[in-house]
């Protein structure tokens, strides 16, 4: 019994070493094929200093776009004069529509939508002409759980805003 206890730390060290080698091989092969963590899109030098022009700075999409731009390495400018590019948010709306109703004429399913329109202007030329994007998700409605369904709608709207921001930044990365 003493013998197996004496060899336990050596076995543990060997096992740990094998896991480290396996992790290093996996990381090397993933980076070699171009795989990156989601949200780590690298922007071109044109987008290095970006100004976001919008009517409402407090929408879910505007917050998500700013966070995604920062995560991608862009510096957000305080004015268009100090920016290398300006992202104009022309339209930023969200809401919900009734999808289905019951025989008693009460909603059973809703569709949450988030719609944006944006363009990108460089220092001298238009980089992206106005583009429209809309994403939707649906959820079932239960009139006995109104507060929970309102929270679900809010969570879906925030997720749609994050997805739209990711789409816009991936488009910006292609410049």
List keywords for this structure.
single chain; 175 residues; alpha/beta; Double Stranded RNA Binding Domain; 2 domains; five-stranded mixed beta sheet; flat
Number of helices: 3
Instruction: State the CATH superfamily name of the largest domain.
Output: Lipoprotein like domain
CATH class of the largest domain equals Alpha Beta
Number of strands: 5
Count of individual domains: 2
The level of helicity is 40-55%
Q: Radius of gyration over alpha carbons? A: 24 Å
**Average pLDDT for all residues:** 85
At CATH level 2, the architecture of the largest domain is 2-Layer Sandwich
- Poorly predicted runs of 5 or more residues: none
CATH topology of the largest domain: Double Stranded RNA Binding Domain
Oligomer: single chain
Biggest beta sheet summary: 5 strands, mixed
Structural class: alpha/beta
Strand portion = 25-35%
Report the span from N to C terminus: 67 Å
Largest beta sheet: strand ordering = 2-1-3-4-5
Question: How do the helices and strands follow one another from N- to C-terminus?
Answer: HEHEEEEH
Query: Can you tell me the overall shape?
Result: flat
